[in-house]
Amino acid sequence: MTSSHDQPVLVAGTDEPNPYLLGVYAPVTTEIDSGDLRVIGRIPRDLNGVYLRNGPNPRHRPDGRYHWFDGDGMVHAVHLENGRARYRNRWIRTKAFEAESEAGRALWRGVMESPKDNPFGNHHGLGLKDAANTDVIFHRGKVLTTWYLCGSPYALDPLSLETLGAEDFLGTLVGDMMAHPKVDERTGELFWFDYGPTPPYLRYGVVSADGRVVHTTDVTLPGPRLPHDMAITDNYAVLMDLPLVQDPEAARHGRHKIVFDRSLPARFGVLPRYGTGDQVRWFEASPCYIYHVVNSWEAGEEIVLDVCRVNRPQPRADAHTPLAKMLSYLRLDAQLHRYRFNLRTGAVSESPMDDANTEFPSVDSRKVGRLSRYAYHVRISPESTLKFDGLVRYDNATGVKAEHSFGPGRWGSEAPFAPRDGATVEGDGYLVTFVQDEREGLSELDIFDAGDLAAGPVARVLLPQRVPLGFHATWVRADQLGLD
User: Which residue among 168, 230, 287, 332 is buried most deeply as judged by most CB within 10 Å?
Assistant: First the structure.
C-alpha cells in the first residue's frame, strides 16, 4: 500500500513547506512485518509483550492546510518474546480511511480549514475527520485507538494490528468517546466521557468488565468545552471544565476555532464512579489547560490529582503568520502540577512539582487510580516543532528526578512502564520507547531499566523502517496477551 505526497505541502498563505510533513514527521508509505530484528545489547528475557504507538500518518496528499492532528492513524508495534523482536505497522481502517482509499485521494480538509465541504464527521457536527490517531490503550483483549476531539474508538488486534472495526461495546455505546479513557485493571472497568457543542455539553460513562456500557449520565457545563483527559480513583471519577473554549463566532460560520478564556477558572468535577450529574462536586482552581493526567488517588478525605499543567494553551500574541500560529499552537509548555481536593471542606490546594517542560506521562498501568510512586514523562525540546529529547522519572516518595537525554538529533516517543514478567513491586521493570535519529533517518526501539535511566538503554532494537514522530503509546504484557 502506498501514499501520494509527490510535492511538498505548503502552509497556506506562505511559500514555506509544512514542517509536520517533513523530516522526522514525514509519513511512511508502506505497511511491513519484519522479524528477527538486529539488536545492540540484549533484550531482557523477562520482558515479554508488545509496545504500540499511535500517530498521524496521512495516506493521501492533504487538501488545504495540514495540521499534525489531521493525519490518518497508524500504529507501529514491536513484539518482544524470549529475547527476540518483531516489528509491524498498520494504518487504522477507520470509515474515513476506507472512504478515501476508495476515492484514491483526500476527501476531508483538516482542523485549520472550514469543514463545510467535508463528506461526514463525528457526531458533534464539526464535520472533521475522525482519524483515531491519538491514543492507544488495552482493554479486554483488544487495543483501542481514539481521536483527540472525541470519536469512535477503533479496536485492533494487539499482535496483527488488524482493524476489528469501530468498537461499540456490544452495541451499548451511543455516541463517541474522548481521547483518553481510563482502564482500571483491578476491576476490568473502562471509564470515559463524551462532549459536544450543545447542552448539557458533557456525558460520562462506564464500561463494565464484560464489555458493556452499564452507566451513563449527563454532566451540565456552562458552555461547550474541549476536555481531553480525566482521572479515576478507587471510588471516584474526576472530570474537567477548563477555560479552553470553542470560539462562538467561528462556530457560527462553521469553523473550528478554540480560545483560552483566562477570566474563567479551571474546574474539576468529582463524582462517584457510578454517580449522576447532580452528584458532581465542583472544585475551582487557577485558569489553565490540561492535556494529560499523570494519576490520581484518594488520601484520607482528599483526592490527589497529578497532571501536566499548561499555562498558555494557545498561540502566542506575536504569532501573526499562519506558520507561526501553527508552530506556536503545537508547542507544549507543561509542568508537573499537583491538586488536592478536600471532599469534606471543599478546599482546593495546588502546587507546582517541577519547572521542567515534560509531558505524555505514564505510570504502571496496574496503579492507575491508586497511589503510585513513580511517573515517567518525556521531556520537550526547545525546538520550534514538538519533539521529545529525553526521559524523566519522578519519584513521589523521595522527590528525586532521574533523567536520560536521547542525544543530538535523536527524538523519542511516549515511554510506558513495562514490568518484568511476574513483578509485583512498582518500578521493577523497564521503559520502552521509539527513538528516531534525524541525522541518519533511522529508528529503533530503546529499552531502559526503569530504575536506572542514567545508564542508558540496555538494548536498542534496530527497526526496518523509519517511524515518524507521533502521539501516545502503551505496553501490553504477555499475560494480558495470553502468551505467558
Answer: 230
